[in-house]
Design goal:
single chain; 13% strand; TIM Barrel
Length: 455
């Protein structure tokens, strides 16, 4: 009994400490990328951008090994395909923990396991064993003496809340009540948290014009257009806050309170098709940077103002191999060479514009096209620059001329290699500059953050 009280007090202190230390903004890392960098490069990019929390959709051994010693807090994923087996077999759960968690700790700082991804709405046939799978994993963590370091939860979408506004009357879809009740009981018993995927982009685009886009983008609304819950009179300054509060009220409707919410996915696509006019760089930049400001103020939504909203942005890189509309492939914050799609600040007060060194390697104005072509071929070949973004149809293909392509390849090589002796010369066709990158609009449907400003 004394031990239980001590552990309970310790958990309370840790919870209070996390609030004092402030909320975090992490990033999801998907792998449906045609030119995915090696795991060591991904970790270097994450560290360069001062990202302290990441979520993986699986338990990739290369990533988990590369993250060793980094201190980065890692959420590993049980894939939807693995949920059934783990739910049906405690030994399978134990094997999964031993292989994908215990084998890497404590060097790799694994702090959570996300069991599946939106299981109730994406793979409903696995729903009957979802909570059993979570219990099996938790028991395996207990057996490995890792249950205090690693929490178990499962991300769910807003789709299981049919009417999220007004938040005060929101409830979970009643057809899932039995499973959700068991889920919430598990989270309460294990001092875990509810994982929520909340996308104001979809809330707005699927909302038939009910809410203004400024509400989805964290922009202030005029006094006559304030969004107010008629039952509580709470003012909602953003759809993001309303979505989080709708989830708190939905839990409360099942008599569960103060289970904290972590937003495991949110973001805004920066490019879309002709029928997706709101997927723009400007909107994505606004949403992401205002989201970071919102989360960083360490407050919760109106109904839970003292519980910060820890949040993971979707996502680090564009997953260009994903099926679906153009927007589905364009949620990435960074290109695979570490360049930011738009200016943002993920881990500190300084703004990241795609090059933390503020020195760029670009093609000279007077270089001949033949020599530039030779330099480009060397950089993309022997030099191992990541040139996928300047291929036809990719984000940096336009403007389609040898100087722009060479500058992109030269700078990619230089940023990777200058600290170990790589130079910016390329047979006299390149030079360094301290001019910041700019966003060049080649045409409406093709936007690229190029590495130079040379006319």
């Amino acid at each position: 009994m004394i031990l239980e009280r001590c552990l309970g007090s310790m958990l309370l202190v840790l919870s209070m400490l996390s609030n004092v230390l402030g909320a975090f903004v992490g990033v999801n890392i998907g792998t449906d990328v045609s030119s995915m960098p090696p795991a060591s490069d991904v970790v270097a990019i994450v560290k360069a951008h001062q990202i302290t929390h990441i979520r993986l959709y699986d338990a990739d051994p290369h990533m988990l090994k590369a993250l060793a010693g980094s201190g980065i807090e890692v959420t590993v994923g049980v894939t939807n395909e693995e949920v059934l087996g783990i739910g049906e077999s405690a030994s399978a759960a134990a094997a999964w923990i031993n292989k994908n968690v215990a084998a890497y700790m404590p060097s790799t700082n694994i702090t959570a396991i996300a069991v599946g991804s939106e299981v109730l709405t994406s793979v409903p046939h696995a729903a009957p064993v979802l909570v059993t799978a979570m219990n099996n994993l938790h028991k395996a963590l207990v057996a490995a003496d890792l249950n205090f370091q690693v929490k178990v939860s499962t991300p769910q979408s807003m789709d299981i809340i049919p009417k999220p506004f007004p938040p005060s009357t929101a409830t979970f879809n009643s057809s899932w009540n039995s499973t959700i009740y068991q889920l919430l009981q598990f989270l309460k018993n294990t001092n875990s948290y509810y994982m929520l995927n909340a996308y104001p982009y979809y809330g707005y685009t699927n909302g038939n014009g009910i809410f203004p886009i400024d509400y989805a983008l964290f922009k202030p609304l005029p006094s006559v257009k304030q969004i107010v819950d008629p039952n509580t009179l709470f003012h909602y300054n953003s759809m993001f806050d309303a979505m989080v509060d709708a989830t708190y009220y939905s839990m409360d409707a099942l008599n569960f309170s103060v289970i904290p919410i972590v937003v495991t996915e949110t973001g805004w696509p920066w490019q879309g098709g002709s029928n997706e006019p709101d997927a723009t760089v400007e909107n994505a930049e606004t949403f992401i940077n205002k989201l970071i400001q919102r989360v960083s103020n360490n407050s919760g939504p109106p109904s839970q103002p003292t519980i910060p909203i820890n949040t993971y942005i979707y996502e680090l890189f564009n997953e260009d191999k994903r099926p679906g509309p153009i927007s589905e492939k364009n949620w990435g914050l960074l290109f695979t060479n570490g360049t930011a799609v738009f200016p943002l600040s993920l881990g500190g007060p300084s703004q990241i514009t795609g090059n933390s060194t503020a020195v760029f390697c670009v093609a000279k104005d007077d270089a001949s096209e033949d020599k530039l072509r030779d330099g480009l071929n060397w950089a993309c070949g022997q030099g191992q620059a990541n040139c996928s973004a300047i291929q036809s149809g990719q984000p940096c293909y336009l403007p389609n001329n040898i100087k722009n392509h060479a500058s992109y390849a030269y700078n990619d090589y230089y940023q990777k290699m200058h600290t170990v002796g790589g130079t910016c010369d390329f047979d006299g066709t390149a030079t360094t500059t301290t001019i910041d990158p700019i966003l060049i609009r080649a045409r409406v449907e093709s936007l690229c953050l190029l590495q130079h400003l040379v006319q």
